[in-house]
Amino acid sequence: MIKSTMKKSILLLVYFVALVCYAQQPPGTDIYLFDLKKKKGTIVLSNPANITARPGYDNQPFFHPDKPLLYYASADATGRTDILEYNYETGTTRKLTETPEREYSPTVTPDKKFISCIIQRDNGAQDLGKYPIDGGVPVVLIKNLTVGYHAWMDEKRLIAFILPQPFTLQLVDVETGEATILAENIGRSLHKIPKENAMSFVQQQPDKTWVIKKLNTGNLAVTTLAALSTEKEPLLTWTPDGTLLRSMELEIYAMKPGKNKTWNKVEIQTALTGISRMAVNPRGDKMAIVVSE
Fold first, then answer.
1. How many domains does the chain have?
2. How far apart are CA 73 and CA 94, in angstroms?
3. CA separation (Å) from 6 to 11, 20, 111, 272?
4. 239 lies in which domain range?
5. pLDDT tens across 111-129, in order?
6. What's the pLDDT tens digit per position in 229-271?
7. Under 8 Å CB-to-CB from 286, ≥6 apart: which residues?
């Protein structure tokens, strides 16, 4: 009887561990790289290439500001993620990190010497750190806040999506560690606005709809770029000429704040499902889109 009870306990323990491991597995996603062109005012995405054609999680693309490199987070069979680098001129991929932690949201720092990213640890901590861009030991930048996403304002300051709920937008001085809450109930899309001293973020309103906001990096004034009627959180990115792109899971729409008041459909020369992330390179001729497998 005792042996039978012990056997059941061991089976339950194994089952529980399996459930935990399964829960840590990120969803399967792929990154497609497109050529981006404008034809008669319409953005056209063509020549799609799946640059992560394998089972598993590949997500959160970020382009290098000068080089033909795309950084992204990629999970192994256990669900642990590392940062990979894809050269879209040579078609080659290399690992930037290979650690026991999980790295997410790779972002090139303003000095172009590091990749900043979320470092998720087994003890539940979720720090912001930076790795030398050519490989090396990380430096922890923020360890007293649970950082979900981030975007750099300049070499000393960044804005961050801070957990838990209600999710807050916080301005962090990485030299002093000082953090200031700027907004609540924000979404995941944090970006530097091209050709402006400003950042963009999204915020949910009391009626559950979303608004796209602009944050002035000088006086920290917040203004509205666009109000959306949808209750689904918008995912955004920008082109170098200041066009705002918004994902609608199966489709993408474009609008130039200050010039257009309506969203125009982007022409995508292939069918996509479950769009969850987007990024445009600094030259404005390539676009990375994350889709469900």
1. 1
2. 12
3. 9, 21, 58, 50
4. 27-292
5. 999 999 999 999 989 999 9
6. 999 999 999 999 999 999 988 999 999 998 988 999 999 999 9
7. 33, 34, 35, 36, 63, 88, 280
For residue 266, the one-letter residue type is V
What are the phi and psi torsion angles at 227 (to 5°)? -100, 135
Instruction: For residue 166, say if its preceding peptide bond is cis, omega within 30 degrees of 0.
Output: yes
Question: How far out from the chain centre does Cα 2 lie?
Answer: 51
Q: Which residue blocks in the chain are alpha helix, DSSP H?
A: 2-23
Query: Beta strands 267-268 and 42-50: pairing type?
Result: parallel
CB 241 within 8 A of CB 43: no
CATH of the domain at 54: 2.120.10.30
pTM of the model: 0.90
Is residue 15 included in any domain, yes or no? no
Instruction: List 223's β-bridge partners, or say none.
Output: 214
CA 128-171-225 angle, to 5 degrees, is: 115
